[in-house]
Amino acid sequence: MADILNETRLKDYYKHFYPYKSVLKWLSYNNPEYLRNREFAFILENDVHLRYLNFGDASDQFHKELVKVAPQKIDLGAVYNHCPKTRHQHKDFKAVERELVFDIDLTDYDEIRNCCSGASVCQKCWRWMAIAVRCLDKLLEDHFGFQHRMWVFSGRRGIHCWVADAEARALDNQGRSAVAEYLSLIAGTKKVNLKTPTIHPMLVDAYEAVMTSEDITPLVLEQGWLDEEESWMKVLEGVEDRAFRDQLISQFHDLASADLRWKLLKRQFDETERKSLASSRSGNLPKPPPANSKYFLMAFILQNAYPRLDVNVSTGTNHLLKSPFCVHPKTGNVAVPLKANEVGNVKLDQLPTIGGLIDELSVLLSKDAADSTEKENDSPGRKLYYKHTSLAPYVETFDAFIDGAVRG
Ligand SMILES: [Zn+2]
């Protein structure tokens, strides 16, 4: 694994794959001065940080520098009130704008994640990411009106979100904290508590987004929460009403599988499920739960499936975040933008890696070399090889986001 990011490979990657023109187009938002005041940071081997870089709108210079320096990572920072390179000349130098960003990482799910832990990730735990994107994407749109949202695979076990609306970029630290706090239900010891008589509409919407996700039933079953008596007894502890809980315990004992227990919970507690059962008149509709246990399933689902945000990433205007299309040093995976509604279909072992892309490139290059010996006087000029590789659809997703974001 040590040579995933060797210099030659990285140089080839920056030369042929990293979409530097798109990145600068995005970060300018049609305003060259905005781009001139943006911080870029290159992170080199041994964690050396070259901060406060800026390339103006000279995409060729940005590209040349990338190929020359071959940074392990590119971070994107804030837009300042002056060009970052001249920060020493300005006493009032400060961050004024940046995209609103979110970071969701599977390590924050370790206390409930039964398939993997730490740095490991598999398709089973990726379901949390699919649910997180579905849920946050909806809340960011419906509760804040944000239109320009990009979701980017972090390269290993998480997802970053960039919100690029002008209103989001202009938020100060307090505003960012307020949004992050609103969207964060579970952090540290903060737990979902639905023992209040009224439920905030945000929780209702979040619950509905999770429950209508194709990933929620597989998640519940694959994580084994309802498999063994020992685990489902813990789940049912959340049912406030003692007699009602005992009734569920006895029903759970009689049911032969986790799937049947999950179906019982939905029939018993999920309003949508109950409405559809009532209208189908199948006679299968149990009596509603007692008032003090009404929100048991909602609390369980939100506690175990609601996105867990790393709030610190969101709250600071000047926080650095990895650029899309960087290569993860441990996995070799490219941090590719993903369409919000396709995160659930992602196959982690099929996402682009630097090794795979360089292999695709050498096939293209040798084909071109063969072709040009055949037609000697043909000089095709600079060719965009990435367009013929498996990276192409991800650059298209990126460009579609940029087109919307720069139009505003
Ligand atoms: Zn897993």
UniProtKB/TrEMBL annotation:
Sequence similarity: Belongs to the eukaryotic-type primase small subunit family.
One Pfam family here: DNA_primase_S
Protein name per Swiss-Prot or TrEMBL: DNA primase
UniProt keywords, alphabetically: DNA replication, DNA-directed RNA polymerase, Metal-binding, Nucleotidyltransferase, Primosome, Transcription, Transferase, Zinc
Annotated organism of origin: Panagrellus redivivus
Organism superkingdom: Eukaryota
EC number: 2.7.7.-
BP term (GO), one: DNA replication, synthesis of primer
Keyword Transferase: yes
Entry GO terms, CC: alpha DNA polymerase:primase complex
Any one GO molecular-function label of the UniProt entry: DNA-directed RNA polymerase activity
